[in-house]
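Help! Submission page says 'invalid entity' but I think these are all valid:
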Amino acid sequence: MLIEVYDVGGSKLRGAFAMLTSRVLLLERMEEPTRPDFYNQILEMSPKLRKTSVPSCVSVSVPGPVDGKTLIKVPQLNLSNPINLEEKLSSLGPIHVENDVNAAAYAELNEGIGKEYNNFYVLTLSTGIGAGIVLNGNVIGGNSGEFGHCVLETDPQKLVFVEKCGCKNKGCWCSFSSGNGLSYLAGLFVEKGLDCEDLFYKAKRGNESAKKIIKEAREYNAHGIGNMVSALDVEAISIMGSLGLNQFDLIIPSKQEISKYTLNNVPKITKTKFGEDIGLIGAFYSAKSFF
Ligand SMILES: [Zn+2]
């Protein structure tokens, strides 16, 4: 089974052909910065991927809530109107659309920590924050796991410094700890025009304001993860997303730090073994379970 897979990230769009052997192999990979009209990018990328073979279907993992084959909105790409991907990509043949963290949950379930655990989260820390949920060996799916938009801060003195999130709230977890949130805070407190990567670079070079922003983001991560563990008593949490993968040691709190925010046992938290490929591999398994 050959599936043409795409992973639409808040900053990068990846495409590949995915084929199942003893595991999913990704062939002909491509990667570009994501444009708001990412569906046109997919239409441009597809002929380059299809030079040698035709896939059984196209599977797209997207960074926002999904209804059928329609992407409802993506706050981090400033897309607030629904996009029907079946219509936009109709020339490519059968289409499957999945929310990115749900797709990632399929990847972990089939080839990753699902081999060891039946109940776990896949938490993405990237441009945005959200989680895929596996319970009793099944991906819960739908629009569950939008933990990133849980409001964690209501202190007006702290809220004056954060931007209103795409979810229309101020003070949600994303406002302080997502790539977008951190870039905003970096621009405000460290230097105009800094992005999230620069912020971590500055902190490593000893910049006190940068260190403070990261320390606070880590505390909000402890709070957010504590809430997740309170919601479901899972056995493990797998971390994905560029921020989570690249800055794991700095921003993922210890069990002790998280314990302050939950009565439940804090499970083992590890980086996903798939790295940045989790979205593409997830797009494969997610489509495979439907076709
Ligand atoms: Zn939000």
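Support: the input was valid. A stray whitespace character was the problem, and the output above is from the cleaned input. The mean pLDDT is 94.
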